[in-house]
Amino acid sequence: MDKPINNRAWFFVLPVLLIVAFSAVIPLMTVVNYSVQDTFGNNQFFWNGIGWFQELLNGTTDLGGRFRESMLRNLLFSGLILLFEVPLGIGVALCMPRKGWTVALCLVTMSLPLLIPWNVVGTIWQIFGRDDIGLLGYALNNWLHIPFHYVSDPLAAWIIVVVMDIWHWTSLVALLCYAGLVSIPDAFYQAAKIDGASRWAVFAKIQLPKMRRVLLIAVLLRFMDSFMIYTEPFVVTGGGPGNSTTFISIELVKFALGQFDLGKAAALSLVYNLIILGTCWVFYTIMVNVDAERKQS
Predict the structure, then answer these.
(1) Which pTM does this prediction carry?
(2) Domain range for residue 236?
(3) Is residue 12, in this structure, part of any structural domain at all?
(4) Which of 3, 35, 110, 218 could form a disulfide with 266 if both were Cys (CB 3.0 to 4.6 A apart)?
């Protein structure tokens, strides 16, 4: 006889669901309301319809041009982050021990950068990269005689922002990959040893396929987090020099707080949110297909 299903447990989580829905729906509706209106101050709003969205998607306008440029910066930054962090995370995970007291030491060490708040990370690298008191900036400029001024050089600003993110988040990719590696049964390695498989063959035929799911999760997390980055580059460069490190999140704050263009900021935030949701749906679909293929095999 099947055990009857008791759904009364949902009543215990229902208040939490209502609070979360209340705190999420009302701000969203407020943003939607602002996106179709314009204001000239004094809390007076005027209907604008889809005008802000049309201007946002038109690259010839100021709003559309700034959105397109910041979008390209976001995509470039996310691409660079994935290009460096995923291979580095896999390499670090492969080098981490599987047994002994050093396992706990490595796990704690790898977790330390993840525990540092984002604004503190930005402050650390802002000081670290300065050419007067920062160790990195002073060493490059005075010891190695390599000009490095992230305040005035866009390339140096990009370098310090990318390196900062790699330092902060590579350990997350490494820990996820390590979790995938330790879940591989020893029988696979024993069979590969009997067959005389090389180290590369073991990685390509056993370890990498078994890490495919955690790698997708790592890529999803890192892409979405890097695409929404705000605090670290804002603290280090403030979006400069010029607009070289002004990402969509920083551009959004400039519209909302700097210029008080609530309509433009609301339209930009909605489009920004739709891009993020669409990307999440793509990654989720890929993960579901990967699971289906694994079950069939």
Answers:
(1) 0.88
(2) 66-296
(3) no
(4) 35
